[in-house]
Amino acid sequence: MLEIPVRDARLRISVAQVITTPQVWLATRPEFLVRGGADPNTLVEVTREDPDRLSADDAHILGLESAVITGHTLKLVVLEPGIGPLDLEALRTAVAERLPIEPRATQRIDTSGPEPCWTEATAFEISDHVRRREEPGCASRADLWRAVSKLMSEHLDHDRPLWTIDLIGPLGDGRDAIAVRIHHAMADGISAVRFLDEVLWDRHPEPNPRGPRPGLRAASPQRSRVDEALRMPAAVRRELGHRSSHSPFDRPISAARELAFTVVPLPELKAIGASRPTHATVNDVLLAIVAGGLRSWLGTGDAALPRLRAQVPVSLHHRDEEAGALGNRDSFLNVDLPLAEADPLTRLDRINAETSKGKRLDDAEELFDLFHALGRVKRVGEAAKRLAGSPREFSLSISNVPGPPAPVSVSGRRVERLFSSSEPAAHHALRISAISCAGIVGIGLCTDPEALPDVVGLAEAMENSYSELRGAAIT
After folding, report:
1. Is the residue at 148 inside a domain?
2. Is the pTM of this model over 0.70?
3. What sign does the dihedral 44-49-52-58 (CA atoms) show?
């Protein structure tokens, strides 16, 4: 039994009960202490962390990297046609001038000590990070997808800061593409959008005053200890423990990657959501599109899979955070994708009902608090994350991050398309990521082609699913 802080309270909890049938008792002392270990009567004070030390979340993500897991995300930027190729030296100069805004951009992660820490990179050269990717014959959309698939499979150099900007093109139609890779230990989805905003997008001479950044939420009000005691176990029961017998994506993966992309108009997604009695969100509509695409692509028809749940990351970055803050602060909701349901609107309504309940009851925040509390005892936290990450808990991860709402440009050329790609994991061989830009949502699909071939076919199935849902919702 462990005593662990949760916000301003203390939690006594059994790890086995956390994952299955949690029992929670709140003690009365508010100190941020942990009771446990070899001597259960020993209290260990939790002190303020070194700002250069990786957070528990960032260190955990760094530790996931392996021969087959690169650990980075990729943002694909497609620019409008220009006269000649993009000027590499001009882009290097522009990016280098703005790097001081993001201190982590010139730091590397030092793993020589007991805990990984950020440290200044010696002999930093912008040319090591902003470069032209030589891809002979890269002329078509398929060629571009193959080029970024290669980038997705290549590890970043840990002796340098963990990001790169690779120019690809010009393509056959005169467009240029830029692939931005950022290690997930450096930035999550919202933080990566901030990085693009601060470092890559052109600055306007007289920018309008900025409101809250897209995707940021107001800090949640403090709740009473009794309320906390009642909410957390219920959140665990809703989000975890719905164990399925088999996931179609529960397969070992190699280092190979295959990417495919598609787009949907953001106003249409909003219109589809607004057409429902409960006003489904854009994220609900995206999940319904994925569900319809998977239903067709997997060939399930009306025959139900044993169970298919999607893990949906939820950003917990707050509006009062520093604008340049990177790092990870997210949680998740697990959502059933009703593949056996033939009616696209019923699929959407069922997804909306489940996500609405989870958001109304703050399930993502409850899980964030719980896993961080358990993480104060390292082995307990690691065991809890392993159980929560089991393929029997969820089959695939589907993320959606709001990007720039207005048009943006790079070196004076407008961004026509923005896509996001996150890599799959062992026993979760498919990953789907969405990001918006100026009214267009770009969706990236990433698989290991050896474990799960034909991701292009899934992208096409999702396009058909969107058309089916739009036709049913907007008549």
Report:
1. yes
2. yes
3. positive
